[in-house]
Predict the structure.
Amino acid sequence: MFLAKFVGCYKRFLMKKITLKDKTFRISIPYERISEAIDNMAEKINSDFKGCEDVPILLCVLNGSIMFMAELMKRLDFNCQIVSTKLTSYDGTSSTGKVKQALGLTADITGRRVIIVEDIVDTGNTIVELKKILAEAGATESYVCTLLMKPESYTKDIRIDYVAIEIPNDFIVGFGLDYDELGRNFKDIYVLDN
Ligand code: IMP
Ligand code: MG
């Protein structure tokens, strides 16, 4: 009886779907798993930055990183400062290959260490552009921290310092990620349902 109820509940959860414009998405990564992965990542970052005498900057890459940034920063226990910027490269469900900076850095970062907080690393074009922007703006060092990574799609040499979850090369939404600006508000992650 209990087992049947549990299986029913689990099945319903797996079948949860959302529709955004012309596309349907099915659940892929539940919030509980995302939260646990961020716990582990925060533990590593805390240990690496433990006792630091500077105030590292957490760079929020708008808009996709907002939800991840909120979850990550409340788990960090060293003094840090938030700076934002906005980059765009996606059109619909694929990368255009061209990265545009839609909003400049919101504070001076000269002489500072910067932890880039990204929602997802896909081709890596955005990371290359971000590293360049930070070096030109006078950052002493920059690290990359991303909630998700698509290793099959990544083509660059830059080391990704912290990855919470690796995923296949599929299009996903939720937890900050969007399809034409929709779907960012969902706390679970959904994958395109073909
Ligand atoms: P990259 O420059 O190809 O690495 O792509 C990075 C950016 O593209 C991310 O910061 C996201 O904003 C967006 N992106 C990449 N993959 C996805 C996806 O599966 N869903 C939604 N946005 C994505
Ligand atoms: Mg992004």
About this structure: Residues 61, 64-65, 118-119 surround magnesium ion (ligand 2) (CB under 6 Å). The radius of gyration is 18 Å.
